[in-house]
């Protein structure tokens, strides 16, 4: 396998249907761009919007908050952790979780590592 550097324009990225309410989730780095060991979604949640419940059976996930604030909920325990600009969260493989934005909304980046192919089933490669 040859290694190469790619510059990817997120403004032309495909979206995955993981946002409930206002916002979107753009897939930036994923198997369709040749990345199998790391993925990267740019997720924007509008005021009080949320993601669907997420779970990656074979992948940990990590996210970084670019702006805004909200919470990440551990669906299994019901516990939540506040998130704000500059914050990061790590999710263990098989944990079910959900992000919920505050009234300020929230923009964050990240995703499962290695790739969780089920997230991308609706996308064209």
Q: How do the strands and helices of this protein lay out in sequence?
A:
Blueprint (H helix, E strand, L loop, with lengths): L18 E2 L2 E7 L10 E6 L4 E2 L8 E15 L5 E5 L3 E4 L5 E17 L12
Antiparallel strand pairs: 1-4, 2-3, 3-8, 5-6, 5-7, 5-8
**What is the global morphology?**
globular
Would you identify the CATH H-level superfamily? Jelly Rolls
H-E string: EEEEEEEE
Unreliable stretches: none
Main pleated sheet = 6 strands, antiparallel
Q: Which CATH class?
A: Mainly Beta
The portion of residues forming beta strands comes to: over 45%
Total strand count, please? 8
**Helix and strand composition category:** mainly beta
For the record, the count of structural domains works out to 1
What is the mean pLDDT? 93
Helix percent reads under 10%
Distance between the termini: 19 Å
Integer-rounded radius of gyration: 14 Å
CATH third-tier fold name: Jelly Rolls
Count of alpha/pi helices: 0
* CATH-level-2 architecture: Sandwich
Oligomer: single chain
Provide a descriptive summary of the structure in words.
By secondary structure, the protein is mostly beta strands. Helices cover about 0% and strands about 45% of the residues. It has one domain: Jelly Rolls. Strands 2, 3, 5, 6, 7 and 8 form a 6-stranded antiparallel beta sheet that branches. Strands 1-4 form a two-stranded antiparallel ribbon.
Q: Would you summarize the structure shown here?
A:
With 125 residues, the chain is mainly β. 0% of the residues lie in helices and 46% in strands. It has one domain: Jelly Rolls (Sandwich), CATH 2.60.120.
């Amino acid at each position: 396998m040859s290694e190469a550097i790619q510059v990817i324009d997120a403004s032309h990225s495909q979206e995955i249907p993981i946002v409930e309410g206002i916002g979107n989730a753009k897939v930036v780095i994923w198997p369709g761009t040749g990345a199998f060991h790391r993925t990267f979604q740019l997720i924007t949640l509008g005021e009080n919007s949320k993601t669907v419940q997420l779970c990656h059976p074979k992948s940990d996930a990590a996210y970084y908050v670019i702006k805004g604030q909200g919470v990440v909920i551990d669906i299994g325990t019901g516990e939540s952790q506040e998130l704000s600009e500059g914050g990061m969260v790590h999710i263990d493989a098989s944990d079910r979780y959900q992000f919920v934005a505050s009234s300020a909304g929230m923009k964050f980046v990240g995703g499962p590592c290695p790739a969780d192919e089920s997230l991308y089933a609706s996308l064209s490669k």
